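Intended use. Records like the one below are meant for learning the mapping from a protein sequence to its folded structure. Do not use them to infer anything beyond what is encoded.
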Amino acid sequence: MAHYDPGTADPLSLSGVVPPTVTAFGDDGSVDYDLTAAHARFVVDRGVHGVFPLGTNGEFALLSGAERDRAVEAVVSEVGDEVPVIAGVGEPSTRGTIARADAADAAGADGLVVVTPYYYPLDGEAAVTHYRRIAAATDLPVYVYHIPGRTGNALSLSTLEGIAAIETVAGVKDSSTDVPWLVRAIDAEPELTFLSGSDSLLVAGLEAGCSGMVSAVANVFPELVVSLYTAYDDGDEDRARELQSRVLGVREALKAGDSYMSGVKTALALRGFDPGPLRSPLRRMNEEERDRLGKRLEDLEVL
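Structure written out for the chain above:
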């Protein structure tokens, strides 16, 4: 079957494959903005439908506010005329998030991805107020980024209902891997666009009612994930499942390092696009891990 339509509350009508693009660094750990933009170009040239700079894969929590603002600017100036750019602007504080949102808006981003505040526990009322204040400070559509495993803050369905009622909230990027939560959220809030945030649930997400996916595998092998989405959209579910199986193999190989991003950046370098190191304390795969990854990706016939 074809994919579900984006939500009616989503002015960007997001669908398809939206990679959480990487932030490139020089050997000294400084941000390489040209190379960061070049990675957005790399995935756009290979058929993705949008880009999401400064997600988890973009190491956003390790960047200063000024670095984050410049990274968004670099990506928008490179690919903003071709695909929607939804910029990660979330910070632990409402005030910080609004500052990042203002800068992303000024840079020409098309939408804002606002991760639930992290580190401090948050109740439902505080979460709704947070999103209400951000929405009041910007005209851009806001996409809620739900990743409780990283933030420590899960959104209940009743809290999501409160957030969804905010006028410029347009969608949800769900990385909870809580499929019952996702199915119920989609059923309860059909006006929102839902994007699946886990490579383990690309086909399952589409079947549940997501219109697209934010895929870390698509940072390295955009063609593979675009083929999966296209197959599903064309009604060739068998082919989509076959490709999901290959994505699972790639995901497993990438996750063998210190962090998923370690595998992503190492695999990108193996593909001939070297985005430099991860920002400390994260690290790239060592030589032995890299060789093992290369062998595994060759076995999966993606390299």
